[in-house]
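pinned: reference chain
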Amino acid sequence: MTWRSLIKLLLSCSILLTVSYLVYNSHVPLQGGSENLPRPRAAPEQPHLDPQPCMCQPDSVQLKDKIPKNQFDKVFQRRKDELSKQKKRTSSELSKLLLAPANSPLQYPIQGFTARPLRISPIPGLALYAEQRSSYKVILKVAKGRLSTEASLSKKVTVKGNQGPELTVESSSLPLLNAALASVSYQSTMYHVHTGDLASFSYDNYEATFPIVIKQPQMPVMFDTGTDIKSKVTITIKTFLRYNNLKVLLSSIRRFYPTVPVIVADDSIEPEKIQEENVQQYIMPPAQVTPAARSRPGQFHLLSRPGQFPPAQVTPADRSRPGQFHLLRDMEPPKDKDDDFVFTEDTKIEKFLNVMEAVPELDVVGGSVQGNQFFFSLEYDEGVPDDGGCLYRKSMGSFQTLQGYPQCTLANGVVNFFLARTDSVQKSRFDPLLKRVAHSEWFMDGLGSLMVASCSDVTIGHQPRKKNAEYEKYRRPTDLSDAVFKYQLHFFKNNLKCIKFG
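pinned: its structure tokens
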């Protein structure tokens, strides 16, 4: 063999050994598992969580432009002060972002622990899982209460700060330490119906924070409404001047639902007496839409423009009779049409009831007016406090369909023909400042508290359109003062920077 042949052979063997080594190591794990793998030197950077100014939709109305310049500074400061008070009423420690530490030996409750105010409540799940050592010490701290444990469990357990806001537990025995942790209790020191506390739990260089919900339990408030539709549903109608249309509407209701109670809220200039079985008429101040007793709490919900007239406040004589559902209807359909409603064979209240009873989370279920649903979604970004939020009412905007009911879709607002739970309606306050039209505004105020759906299989009809000059004078004023006032109201009440009605 020549020296050249020998060199070629050695090179071939070297290449073969290198390839074999690489193939072998690609299939065999490193000795010692993941412990030998390089670890990141620092935790990944957290996303920026501070609130950012919101971006207005194109063609949005800039609400600050609707405030008179000579009043803006004072209005802005009052809005800022009121928002600060509102946040104090509605926010708590429970809204603070908490991040769980990685590879921590500490065990603690992360959700579901609720303590009654001023009551001693055992904290479930506290434990330490640490490597063996000569001594173990953990520290618990709270801000709105006191901590306690069974100090007499063992002489090998040392407890400091019992019945105080900071509790230290130390022992040479891990099982005994965990026994002491299992007996730790929390007791708030101040009464509050619903607030929270943050507990700090530390051991060695490890520290964790977990929430404590402090809440007074609420008693159930339920009504035995029976089994038939007349005991479950009350129909409410808002009327103004158009008595011929009202009589047609009542006649159509009685054709299909002769025994269902009807409430007529009437603010006509010269009211006419309505005397029909199962119909209660309530006379309000002329052309007010809102009753004088608007601030009084009530049980009934207005079918009419809900933001204009809460039925409960118009029916003091009938206030003691609890009701579960209210069918809301209006003599003035949406989209500024002056057609009047009329019940048809497709106005099946039972279908509304089936959906509401099958899906208890729902507060409002809307139908359609002559086949048109007119639902909408609300896109809201709260922005930063001083700047204000951005709101976009998106016509025909919706979310997913309702499970089990493909004809129904979730939305944020529906046409002013809907069935609502009486107690749920009270979640969204009726604004006494909006006296004429406040349909969308009522749903805006209920955003985040009202669960709303729109179903296409329940529809109500229109009566033939008839001109009524007296009615038009009140319902559609020619000046723009109403629109400007609404913008000013949104600026202050909803802390909005801009709004768009799509």
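why pinned: The domain at 229-501 is CATH 3.90.550 (Spore Coat Polysaccharide Biosynthesis Protein SpsA; Chain A). Residues 21-42, 289-322, 330-339 have pLDDT under 50 and may be disordered.
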